[in-house]
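Could someone model ME8 with this protein?
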Amino acid sequence: MKKRFYITTPIYYPSAKLHIGHAYCTTLTDVFARSKRERGYECFFLTGADEHGLKIQKNAEAAGVTPQQFVDNIVEGFYKLWDLLKITNDDFIRTTQDRHIKVVQEAFTKMLNQGDIYLGKYEGWYCRYCEAFWTDTQVGKEHICPDCGREVQKAEEEAYFFKTSKYVDSLLKFYDENPKFLVPESRKNEMINTFIKPGLEDLCVSRTSFSWGIPVRENPKHVVYVWLDALTNYISALGYGSDNPELYKKYWEDEDTEIIHILGADITRFHAIYWPMFLESLGVRKPDREFVHGLLMMKDSKMSKSKGNVVDPYPLVERYGVDAVRYYLTREISFGSDGSFSPEQFVERINADLANSYGNLLNRTIGMMTKYFGGTIPEYKSQVTEFDGSLESVIATTIKSYENAMDDLKITDAIVYVNELVNRANKYIDETQPWVLAKDPANTDKLASVMNHLAYAIFVASRLYHPVLVTASDKAFDQLGLDKKEREYANISNKNLLDNHQVNKGEPLFPRLDANIEVPFINELMSGNK
Ligand code: ME8
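Reply:
Sure, complex below.
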C-alpha cells in the first residue's frame, strides 16, 4: 500500500443548492479520508465548485446578478453544508480563482502548441442543461439527452477540439495495465463498449456561444469548454504549474501517493476517458483509482437539481444529527449501486443499528460497570470465561476485514463488519450472564473479565465507527473514560488499554425514533412543504 493519499470529490456546480446526492459523495470521501488519517496515513482531501458555464450564466441573468455574485452566494451554502456534515476537506477549489484560471490557460496553450487542440467546427446535439454534446445514437430518434431526459438541440459553431484519436490506443493500454483503475470494474467495459468502440469523437473544448468561462488566450472570443476547465481542478488546487508546487510534488508527482477520485456514475465518461487523455497530453501522471458510486434515486427517478425532486440535507441533520445522516448514507447505499432515499429505512436503520445495538451495548455496559465495579474497568486477563476467546477473535478479524473493506472504499461492508462485532458483543452479554455471575463472589474474576472484554469491544467498535459517527464515537470514548490522546493514538489492538479507567455514565447515544412521527415528518420534507 502507498504511504499517502490524495482524494477528491467532483467539484459541484453552484447552479443551485446542493442536495443529499452531493452530500452522499462528499460524506463517502470524508469517511475514506478520515479512516486513512486515523490509521496514521497522510491524506489530502479536496472538494470544490465548478463555477463556469452556460447554465450558471443563465441562472445569474434570471436572478438579476452577475455570474460571480451568483456563484459566490451559492458557494457560501456549500461551505455551510460541509461544516454541518463535519467534512474534513483540506482545501476547497473554485474554478473562478486565479490559481485555477492560470493553469487552465497554460494547459490549453500547451495542448494547442503540440497540436493536440485544433480549431474546427462543431455540429452535434447539445444539451444545455448538462452542457454536453451527444451523438445521433445517444440522443435517439426522440432527440433526448441520455443524462437528464430533456430535449437536445442541433448546434454548430466554431470551436476548438481535443484530438482524442491520438490517445485512444494508449488509454486502452492504460486500462489493460491498470485493472484496478476503475471501480466497479464493470465501468471499464461500459466505457469501452458505449463510448470507445463506436468511435470516439474529438472533444469540443471551447465555446463561443456564452462568455462565462475562462478565455482562450490565443483567441479570446472562445471560452474554455467546461470539462477541460473542470477536470483540471484536481491539479490546479495542488499548485501544478505555479510558483508554489510543493503540494503538487508531494500529492501528485510522488509515486508514493495514491491518487483517488470519487465520482458519481453520471460523470464517469469525463473522468475515465478524457481526464487520462488530458493528463497524458500534459505529460502528467494519471490517477491510480477512480471510484464510481451509484446515484440516489427518488421514487424511482434520478434525483437532480434540474428536475426539482431533491432532498435537502440541512433539515435532516438539524433534526437527527450529523451522525445519523452520515450513517444512513454510508450504510444504506451499497457502494457502486444506485440507491433510493426512503424515510422508513432511514428511521429503521437509526433505530436498529444505532439505538438498539450500538447505543444499547454502551448503555448496558456502563450501567453494569457502575453497579458491579463502582465504575472502574477491571484489568484485562485472557481466557477467564469460556466465551472470551471467541469474542477476542471476532474483534481481531473485524479490525482486519474492516481495514481491507475501507481500502477498497467498500464502506457499507466495513460498517457491517462493525455492526456484527456490536451484535457479537451483545450476544456475549447474553452468554456470560453478568447478572448471574454477580450473585456469587466466587465468580468475581469472571465478571471482571466480562466487563473488561465488553469495554474493549466498545472501544474497538467506536474507533472503527469513528470516521462515520464523528460525534457519537467521541461520546462513547468519553463514557469509557478515555482522554483525547488515548482515543486517537492508542493502538487498537492493545487489550490493556482500558484497564482501570473510570467510566462516566452519559445520555443514550441515539434516542429511539418513533416511526409514526418521523416518517411523516421526512415525507413532508421531501415534498418540499417544510
Ligand atoms: O457534474 N445521487 O457537478 P454536479 C448521488 N461539475 N450522487 C449525486 C446525485 C445523486 N442523485 N446527484 C449528484 C458536475 N451527485 C460537474 C463535476 S468534476 C471535475 C465536475 C453527485 O453538481 C455525484 O457525485 O452535477 C455526481 O457525480 C456529482 O454530484 C455531480 O455534481
